[in-house]
Design goal:
Layout (H helix, E strand, L loop, with lengths): L1 H18 L10 H21 L1 H9 L6 H17 L8 H8 L5 H11 L2 H29 L3 H6 L8 H8 L4 H25 L2
């Protein structure tokens, strides 16, 4: 429970400090967002590159395992497309960009803020945080009613790290490799898809 509360707690702290002016004024500069984005991309690359287990999995997998992240991508875009009917103030490509975060709230929010607007970046941050928290809390029910892959699908990009323990616990250790692989693929695709949707899709 502590891990679940940490993320929204830091987010709320940032809002409070920003509202009452307890932070340096230059901290709100767009340069900080750029540097943070570069740092996140670097750390994501280091995390994937340094994980030898991940590379061993990639070399030994069956091609059919690609159906898992592919299905998650299709399902996510189908789900957010349906949600667009409830959010008429947002264009479809904006909703797609938010969905393309696949739970990777930090990276997707910064990308969207820079490529579109801080408002949409905030929407991406909150929706992807909720996706991670929902997976952590609902994994037992998802697996029980929808099968062992349901937790992996719900976790999206987070299935390679933060939600991996709960997925492994309720889906079984045999699904941990699938979860790790799917999360790696989706994590790599987040900046690519978000950028493509916001720059190429009209």
């Amino acid at each position: 429970m502590k891990g679940i509360l940490t993320i929204p707690a830091f987010f709320a702290l940032g809002i409070i400090l920003g509202m009452y002016g307890h932070l340096p004024t230059n901290l709100n500069s767009s340069e900080w967002s750029t540097y943070t984005l570069y740092l996140l991309m670097f750390l994501a690359g280091v995390g994937i590159g340094a994980d030898r287990k991940s590379w061993n999995i990639l070399r030994s997998i069956n091609i059919k395992i690609f159906l898992v992240p592919a299905g998650i991508i299709v399902g996510t875009f189908a789900g957010v497309s349906l949600a667009s009917f409830l959010l008429p103030s947002l264009r479809l490509r904006e909703i797609w960009a938010v969905g393309a975060g696949f739970g990777y709230y930090s990276l997707s929010a910064i990308f969207i803020s820079k490529l579109h607007s801080e408002t949409l970046g905030l929407v991406a941050l909150l929706s992807n945080i909720f996706r991670e928290i929902f997976t952590l809390l609902a994994a037992p029910l998802l697996v029980k009613y929808f099968g062992n892959l349901a937790g992996i699908a719900s976790g999206g990009a987070t299935s390679m790290d933060t939600t991996l323990p709960v997925i492994s616990k309720y889906s079984g250790k045999d699904y941990a490799i699938i979860s790790l692989f799917s999360g790696i693929v989706l994590t790599i695709l987040v900046p690519i898809l978000v950028t493509f949707i916001l720059t190429a899709v009209k």
